Amino acid sequence: MNKTRLIIFALLGMLLIIPACNDRKTYADYLNDEEKAIDLFIAQQQLTILDEYPASGNFGEKEFYKDPATGVYYHVISYGDTTTNLTQNQVVYIRFRDLHYFMADDTIRYSNLAYPVEVKYLGPVNSTTKSYYSNPGWMIPLERVGHNGEVKMIIPFTMGSSNDRSQYQPSYYDFVQYRLQGKY
Fold it and tell me: CA 119 from chain center: how many Å?
């Protein structure tokens, strides 16, 4: 009789534990939620997404180019000084304002205008270099803009900071500025 009760209680315990394990989101669920949140943000802001980079290099007021390799969206406000070539291992200072986590209930806008992030440019972002950057999404427009270049960006969490990746939070930057070392 004791064995029968033990088996019944063990089965009941497993029935209670197994459904709890299925309540967790999978990585695919987070990616799906992010895609929906980005699509909603784009619709709310009435943005136009370009599949091809503008031939003239000029963006309309609400046009964003989506980089097909990374999923990062950006709008070039100013190309800055593009006469100087960006070189590997060059230090880039990145300032931003109005960072917004639009998928969360966070209404705070973050900024670092007084204390720029210093990043060493390691070349175009790919699967190898991505892990070396604090925020790989910031590096995507650098192939097109120069010293004092300015952009707006929507960065999926997979291309964001380590905090963005751990929280599964895409981000929107209303202003990002790049300054190349030696050009101050």
Answer: 16
